[in-house]
Amino acid sequence: MNRHWEKLEYPEILRRLARHTDFSGGEALALALEPTFYLRDAQELLALTSEARLLLEAHPDFALGGVRDIRPLAARAQRGITLQPTELLEVRSTLIGAERVRRMVGRLEAQFPMLADIAARIYPLPGLAEAIARVLDDRGEVRDSASDELSRIRRELRITQDRVQDRLRRLIGSAEVAPYLQEALITRREGRFVIPVQADFKGHVQGIVHDRSSSGATLFVEPAQVVEMNNALRELRLAEEEEVIRLLRVLSATVGQAADEINHTLDALANLDLVLARARYAESMMATAPTLVAVPKMPPTPEADNLHPGTVVRLKGARHPLIDPAQVVPVSIDVMADTHVVVITGPNTGGKTVSLKTVGLLTLMALSGMHIPVDSGSELSCFDAVYADIGDEQSIEQSLSTFSSHLTNILSFLDEVDHRSLVLLDELGAGTDPAEGSALARALLDALRQRRCTIFVATHYPELKLYAHNTPGVQNASMEFDVETLAPTYRLTIGLPGRSNAFAIAQRLGMPQSIVKRAQGMISGEELRAEDMLTDLHNLRIQEVVARDAAREAQGEVDAMRKQLRERLAKIEQERRAILTQAEATAEAEVEALRNELRSLRTKMLLTPVSNAIPALDAVEDELDAVETTIARPEPLVQDAIAEPVRIENRELQAGDVVALLALGIEGVVLDVGAGEVSVQAGSIRTRVSRSDVALVRRGAAPRSESSGISVPTRATSPGVQIDLRGQTVEEALTRLERHIDEAAMASLPWVRIVHGKGTGRLRQEVRRHVANHPLVSSYEEAPLAEGGEGATIIHLVTAR
Questions:
Q1: Strand, coil or helix: what is 761?
Q2: Residue 374 contacts by C-beta under 8 Å, 6 or more apart in sequence?
Q3: How far is it, in rounded angstroms, from Cα 607 to Cα 604?
Q4: Coil, strand or helix at 541
Q5: CA dist., res. 376 & res. 379, Å (int)
Q6: Cα-flanking dihedrals φ and ψ of residue 296, to 5°?
Q7: Residue (of 622, 617, 592, 587) closest to 602 by Cα position
Q8: Distance between CA atoms of 144 and 771, rounded to whole angstroms?
């Protein structure tokens, strides 16, 4: 591990990443993960992590369940070593898990192409997994069916064992043996069946003594009558053991033959596990993917004395990944376009070192393909190297002081840095005489600046503040300090140097004013003016922040009001549509009821003989009037808002005028005007409303009066015995059919052939459903084959009496 990365605690990041892996193969890759300094590779790694996060979002339970790192087992099998049943089960479980992952990710290739590319490197080995399953059960026991020979051996073994036990049961129940037994049971010793005999009567039971109890009172004797059967049992067990070993050896050889495929599969699974671990780690940190920016191969031509290398460091709301998320204070590090050296000053324990480590750690994480804990919109250059001098490495053995250890570390990479390097320096020049340390710090910093690398340096030296202020490409930054609470805020401010706050702190702690003034008098006028200038700058910055916060708060209130208004309008619109939809349904139901009534009246009319038509028509007209009066006022139909009507006062309405029904919000045409009421036709609905409930929209021509009565032609014209509905929609066809049936009934036709065609069968189905309940149709049937078959239907009409 690079020692500069260790100073930034990068190994701890890898340990936390490894906790999110599913098996040891992925864990090993996580612990050995190193940044890549090639832009395309780093961008691909970040894209893989983003894709894995989307996969886990869509399938939260996705994991490499059952997978183990079986590469060592495959290597042993390849060398001819026989694997144990539990190890073979691990191989089977891993192969099944690998195949499941391959198939699942493969099905999602369109959504997750990069992950599918990794999964495609998994070798399918179903034959090997099935071979193991045929030999071993889930407990690792070799199945009887593993081979014909093993099946035969175990069958004979069971038979022989039953014979031995049956013979022993008869012995322990016999009068010759039972009195001498310690207890009537059969047990085993050294793999042979024996019975417990009292030691005092060992001569009364002939056989072989295999063991005795701890007290010596019981001897475990194999009776002579079962010795041969126990021998046969032993031989069968040895044969069983040999067959089991042979089967395991064959399976192990098969695993060894597939060792290369297994290794490739486990490599793919380990890579996939690492990608998923990066995704889970990113979710735990609420991280985002930064934008990586290429560093020019050759540094840009310097402008004046500005040696900017063309790099970018823009971290918005950056959080140190190793600090408790509940306590970490985000810092925004947005270096200006013409700045490549940032000098951070501020109080001790104020967060300078944490800020340096945050920049270094997040850079290494991003180049390793990890999302980083920053806000969206963050950018980082793809540096070629990251160098860090952070922490105290003084050594007694090497006679190194704090100053020497820092200097030795800096000298180790001083000749290696270039415009593609990121350098992080903590307490540059500390640990020696302040004057000499300050001078050396400025010289080192200027030497590194001349090499055009990107530098972040933390220091206490005030001279470096002036250096940053006066040098092109160098910018001050500071860690804020709350004088009231005497505590750091851990917030980084780019563009302002840090203040010492020594006099303010002394006053807050109760130091006499006279001592503080005397101390201030010992400071040079130039230093006091510089401190006053910093105070003014800080005050201006505070005012700027307050104004910005006020603007954000106002904007937030506006956004909240806008959102609330949108929600209210959406709710109103939803309620309006619900009301109008319900009204439409109600109106449609009422219209349908009217149609049914009219159809019934029409049927009565058509079935009435012509000689009796006049009295019958009077009754029909009475019924029509009754039906019309039962129709309730319809609810408003769904339609766009109409133009604002002009209310007409003291003017007479006339038939044909277009009016607005004020209570309903719809338009209609005036049919007739009565005393205080108006009859209005709105769409297919006619209603009568009060004069005060309508307003004139525009004048119109009087509509042609339609008679409400029903006339019966004395002589009807035949519409023909056939109607062709092919090529029409269902609605058009049924409308034509209804008219044709009416005319056919008026003309006293006995039947009509309806040609609807075959097609999908929908038109035929709707036609037959319509005529099945029609009052003028007595029956219907499919046309004979010669007249159209399934493509036509013949209906028989009700004849007039």
A1: coil
A2: 287, 288, 290, 315, 316, 317, 318, 319, 362
A3: 5
A4: helix
A5: 9
A6: -55, 140
A7: 617
A8: 71
Give 48-66 pLDDT, tens digit per residue. 999 999 999 999 989 988 8
Would the pTM count as exceeding 0.70? Answer: no
Q: What is the pLDDT of residues 268-314, one digit of tens each?
A: 999 999 999 999 999 999 999 999 999 988 877 776 667 888 899 99
Residue 315 phi, psi dihedral angles, 5° rounding: -115, 110
Task: Please check whether residue 657 is in contact with residue 699, taking contact to mean a CB–CB distance below 8 angstroms.
Answer: yes
Measured in degrees and rounded to the nearest 5, phi and psi for residue 165 equal -65, -35
H/E element, 488: strand 487-494
CA-wise closest residue to 225 among 255, 261, 262, 195: 195
Tokens representing 367 are 């180049």
Reduced to 3 DSSP states, what percent helix, strand and coil does the chain have, rounded to the nearest 5? 50, 15, 35
Q: For residue 785, give every residue at least 6 positions away whose Cβ sits within 8 Å of its Cβ, in sequence order, or none.
A: none
3-state secondary structure of 602: helix
pLDDT, position 398: 42
Token digits of residue 624: 């029509």
In sequence order, the 6+-apart residues with CB closer than 8 A to the CB of 557 are: none
463 and 442 in contact (C-beta within 8 Å)? yes
- Nearest Cα to Cα of residue 424 among 324, 336, 530, 313: 313
CB–CB of 673/688 below 8 Å?
A: no
Contact predicate 64/269, CB 8 Å: yes
